[in-house]
Specification:
homodimer, about 500 residues, alpha/beta, Aspartate Aminotransferase, domain 2, Aspartate Aminotransferase, domain 1, 3 domains, eight-stranded mixed β-sheet, four-stranded antiparallel β-sheet, disordered N terminus
Amino acid sequence: MITNLPTAELLSDTLAQADFLPRLPQQRRLYEAAKAAILSQQLGAGCKLPSTRNLAKDLGIARNTIIAAFEQLVAEGFVVTSTGSGTYVAATLPTVSRPKGKLKELPASTPKIPLAGPAPLSKRGAQLTEFAAGERYEIQPFAPGDCDFSTFPYKIWQRLQNRVWRDSWSELLDYGKAGGYLPLRRAIAEYLRVSRSVKVSIDQVMITAGTQQSLDLCAQLLADVGDTAWVENPCYWGARRVFESCDLHLHPIAVDAEGIAPTASELMSKPRLIYVTPSHQYPTGVVMSLARRRMLLELAENEGAWILEDDYDSEFRYTGRPLAALQGLDAHGRVVYMGTFSKVLYPGIKVGYLVVPPLLVEPFKSALYDLHRPGQLMIQAALADFIAAGHFTTHIRKIRQAYGAKRELLRKTLVAQVGNNIKISGEESGLHLVIELPDQVDDVALASLAAESGIAVKPLSNYYLQQPVRRGLLVGYAYVNMDKISYYGKLLAHVIQAGTRL
Amino acid sequence: MITNLPTAELLSDTLAQADFLPRLPQQRRLYEAAKAAILSQQLGAGCKLPSTRNLAKDLGIARNTIIAAFEQLVAEGFVVTSTGSGTYVAATLPTVSRPKGKLKELPASTPKIPLAGPAPLSKRGAQLTEFAAGERYEIQPFAPGDCDFSTFPYKIWQRLQNRVWRDSWSELLDYGKAGGYLPLRRAIAEYLRVSRSVKVSIDQVMITAGTQQSLDLCAQLLADVGDTAWVENPCYWGARRVFESCDLHLHPIAVDAEGIAPTASELMSKPRLIYVTPSHQYPTGVVMSLARRRMLLELAENEGAWILEDDYDSEFRYTGRPLAALQGLDAHGRVVYMGTFSKVLYPGIKVGYLVVPPLLVEPFKSALYDLHRPGQLMIQAALADFIAAGHFTTHIRKIRQAYGAKRELLRKTLVAQVGNNIKISGEESGLHLVIELPDQVDDVALASLAAESGIAVKPLSNYYLQQPVRRGLLVGYAYVNMDKISYYGKLLAHVIQAGTRL
């Protein structure tokens, strides 16, 4: 037991040293000083604290300040008060019995990184981290994936957004409990019926926070750990990461000129999920043939599998009308259709949608709320108005034209430079094109070479789950300014020529 | 092979019948009519279509319209063209060989719900759907969980939001690739250091789309399928659903007056994750004692476990200062701390944050992007300005006072009506209080009784993972208007008296 005076001195000293907290009020500094003294056991368990009156005198601090600091220490269990008897440092050792010899003192130092012991990450976490797409997908010339969000009509958007905030019921600040904001679901249903030939009632539409969340919901609700998911090979990496994190068994299926092409023996396997991008295979750009579409639908019906149709950039078809969705051919409710506004409006809007078969409406609605607690109804309302007022259609038309022109210019530039030695595929739609390369070309090395010139094209190899079948470069052109396309196109052509001696 | 004339007549007829698509342009209707005829096999494989010139004459439609419709049919593989020879219905049977006898005709009807076959939902999906919190958590008097978002200073917010949209670089429309908008991460780090005694550098802060996403990231990155997660019993249901969907093994640990209270044998078990709510145990309101905090930290260090500290409503402590976070005591980097703006600003804002130990910064940053592709940087920027300008602190102070007054009035009303027969716990903080009930009272039945009077209190029993230990009612008071508290409080007291004969 220590007497009052040393405690007061100790607190005074500690307080003086507590200059690492200069911006904090006195009460807080006193609290921190006392806490540090208790945790370092300079003030041991059972030690009596001086009275607030004495301490106020000793430290030259207002008594109320000291009382407030003491109350905080009491509330957090560092000290206990005993009526009429005073304030004592609490017994801070665990009150629950534990095996002897395992207790260690808590060092008062800053966190250290353990060098040994159990792996910090889970196996799925380690697998996920190894990939680290975020590091590599920067906005640089020709990096595939992004749209040109600098053209987003933000003044119109702001006006609509302000109207929603001004006129809205405060209910739009709450979570979205019923699958999303109804007028937006209605607008999406109409858009998909007219533009994508999707068979859909409003009830089947759910608003999600984007395709990643849509995929996660499907993987969680429709497949269990170890279940097989067919993915296209090469495949969209974002879907792959979600399925892996949900511990599905991924079965890569080759892609040919008609889209996903399972072999006879693969057709005998029983996938639980079939993830496809029929309108514009990601990343090759192939359109799935009608025969393959019917084959998948039959397979899904016979085996009770679910087809996940990701229609991520179907708005961008530069010749003719957009292709109809696979979902529109589905007579047995085996297709979950998904789309996003990230490629049409701007990436960070984080609004996507699912169209689920009638059977799945209630489970999806319920799980969407329980797992993700959706919100952003204000944005959903502004978006519904944006669509209803025709701005959405206008914007699509405008950017489709711009992207088509960029694509054509890029194609011409590349052909003019490299000639007929390269083949450009996936030409008619999307936000990127693929430069096909001969098998002996190391496309990964070529992409690194391009990166040295400030061009962020991606090697096709990286999209394969197993040994790459074809080599190539993905070139995103959507957000490169029209007047820069020629410059970067020529630069890229030089890199290809230098790297491949074509 | 059918001659040209019947085909034209057929198309003409089908087109006339296609009045289910009255709002569509003629080209689209023709396309739909032809597609329907092909799918229903009225136009069989190999059937030659009439020339566009003849068809234009027969149908009385501009030839360009017909050409466009044909091009669409070609692009989607319904018909094929042979140069100089004409256009034919494609062979739509699968080109890949399949076991005989499994092919079925596609009926042209609307989707039907299958009555038999494989279970549509996965096991985890079925488990999740059974719970269906969304159905039950409506905004009604006394439903716990929501804050009073009608007090959100939306005019200030709109002004800040407009400034961000007006002045921002378009980069804020992109995905957030580096763990969130830097000024917001800085503002959160400062807030947590000062108000919550969290030890944090800016780099350790990651912005998420709310606590559900924070929990999901932790479960994915730090635990594998079948790993044990300790959860408090009773427990926050949202966390439980996320862990279950990630296929963790949940081990419920009893809660006593000092918080989570593992038994000696439980302490010998090796949890991978320990999910706790130390500042205000959800739902009981207990504050975790210092002894328990130190015990958990030691256990985590010795066993290589991760503590997930959910500090969901620590801003609302009505007596004294907010309690310091468990994370602040962590000397070995074993605590992942999480918080949310949903309880302080408005639920649908969907901005939460994680503070991860230095060791986990890179893996979390990378996985956050790869799994969730975060966005909403515009909202993050507005929020950073909101905090920097002091509006956040002002708003917290204002609502803390209001909620404290509501809580006190509710407590007084209940005590005045029911007297000392009920005990109210979790009194000093949060957005709800718990009315404790004798063991023999069926709190689920009592909550149903209350619901009949339009009061949406929740039974404590529902928050237990196993056999309930204590009975009670959770009463959320935050968003009930002050002048309605007495009315609903009396109503609730009557229900309790009627239901329990107290």
